[in-house]
């Protein structure tokens, strides 16, 4: 009986009487056919959801931090704002919009490349 679409982890090319080893460092050892590495999937998702940095928005004032805020200060301010404006916790009409704004501000300010683009 052969496995369809999978190379066995045991290092044998085929199941049955005449098992022969594929070799210790075979490129197919333990991989499913059509397998995509998780790093490749992550990269493609990241590239598909690219966000532009808007120059007319002051991301620092949205989070209520200074321009020289550290990563820890940004995280603390974001968590405080996110908790305050999360749509599940705040029933007001503009809570969702404020939550999205603080999330975008946090993403821009924690990414060194995007932060360098700010005026």
UniProtKB/TrEMBL annotation:
GO terms for biological process: protein refolding. It comes from the Eukaryota. Gene3D superfamilies: DnaJ domain. Residues 58-119 form the J domain. InterPro entries: DnaJ_domain (IPR001623), J_dom_sf (IPR036869). GO terms for molecular function: unfolded protein binding. One of its GO terms (cellular component) is cytoplasm. This is J domain-containing protein. It comes from Rhodosorus marinus. The lineage of its organism: Eukaryota, Rhodophyta, Stylonematophyceae, Stylonematales, Stylonemataceae.
């Amino acid at each position: 009986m052969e496995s369809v679409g999978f190379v066995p982890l045991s290092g044998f090319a085929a199941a049955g009487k005449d098992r022969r080893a594929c070799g210790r460092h075979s490129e197919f050892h333990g991989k499913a056919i059509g397998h995509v590495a998780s790093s490749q999937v992550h990269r493609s998702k990241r590239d598909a959801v690219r966000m532009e940095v808007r120059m007319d928005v002051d991301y620092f004032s949205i989070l209520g931090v200074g321009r020289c805020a550290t990563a820890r200060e940004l995280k603390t301010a974001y968590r405080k704002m996110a908790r305050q404006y999360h749509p599940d916790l705040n029933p007001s009409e503009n809570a969702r919009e404020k939550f999205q704004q603080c999330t975008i501000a946090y993403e821009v300010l924690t990414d060194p490349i995007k932060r360098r683009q700010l005026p």
